[in-house]
Known about the structure:
The chain has strands at about 5-15, 25-30, 35-45, 50-60, 65-75, 80-90, 95-105, 110-120. By secondary structure, the chain is an all-beta fold. A hairpin with a 7-residue loop joins strand 4 and strand 5. The protein is elongated.
Amino acid sequence: xxxxxxxxxxxRGTATxxxxxxxxxxxxxxxxxxxxxxxxxxDTSALQSGDAVKLIIxxxxxxxxxxxxxxxxITEPLDNPIVHLLSMTLPAxxxxxxxxxxxxxxxxxxxxxxxxxxxxEI
Length: 122
């Protein structure tokens, strides 16, 4: 069996929450025809003392019901402000979603970049 990347999709933008404690989508994907590899980066360099954010990754292991896979809470400015969401291989129906919630401080903007690589057997 040979596996290759069928297609790649890039998602780049800047997320600015509309209010504190409001979950804001960075990516919110549906299903694919084949398994995927997801990886991403979020720039938290705008954080100042007193600011806090929460990043949540959701996936649907059963293909239907999204559940939390991981939660990252940042309660102070980071020395290395780029947060790397490690590469993960997911089933075609995982429906990944990554959100950002600013929980305290002054609302900030957070640039992000994600790549989805859809696999296929040839």
